[in-house]
Amino acid sequence: MGNAQSGGIPREILDDLKLTTRFSDSEITQWYENFQKQCPTGRITLQQFEEIYAYAQHVFRSFDTNDDGTLDFKEYVVALHMTSSGKSTLKLEWAFSLFDVDKNGYVTKPEVTELSQAIFDLIPKEKQANLPSDESTPEKRAEKLWRKHLQSRFSLTHAERVAEGEFIQAIQSNEAALRLIQYDHK
Ligand SMILES: [Ca+2]
Ligand SMILES: [Ca+2]
């Protein structure tokens, strides 16, 4: 039949995954496309897994609001709500908790640097090569996000840390900053 488009997910893999998981055609197809982009060889190496895992650890920590190393039902549902909501303020609240590594209610330069590294590692290699020169390394991205989009806006009040409201205000409707806090460059 040739019903799998070239580069698309092979039919038998799709059928097999639908039987063994509860995911829909479109979900599996989307993940397949993302997987192919992330891993052009079609395989995840240990090194790539560790990069993905570094980001995953940050995501987990941002969901684990009481910091006990597990997600209870409430944390889990709040996580689903924040990440799947169409509301941009909710997503930005979540982004803030992602960047606030030590959960003290403020984002600092070292935290921005840490997340910039984890996010950068998720950008497919061929897209890394096409990034603007001031966004082409994790350090440059952290510097730009921190200095241009966060710190400079609030340097009159305090230069070393940014509170949640300020973070959201600085990133909201700011395409250039939004690009730096996510890895999925469309
Ligand atoms: Ca918890
Ligand atoms: Ca912090």
UniProtKB/TrEMBL annotation:
PROSITE patterns, alphabetized: EF_HAND_1 (PS00018), EF_HAND_2 (PS50222)
Keyword Calcium: yes
Keyword Glycosyltransferase part of the UniProt annotation: no
The EF-hand domain, residue ranges: 51-86, 87-122
Bilayer-spanning residue ranges: none
Single GO MF annotation: calcium ion binding
Lineage: superkingdom: Eukaryota
Keyword line: Calcium, Metal-binding, Repeat
PANTHER family: CALCIUM BINDING PROTEINS, VISININ
Protein name: Recoverin 3
Taxonomic lineage of the native organism: Eukaryota, Metazoa, Chordata, Craniata, Vertebrata
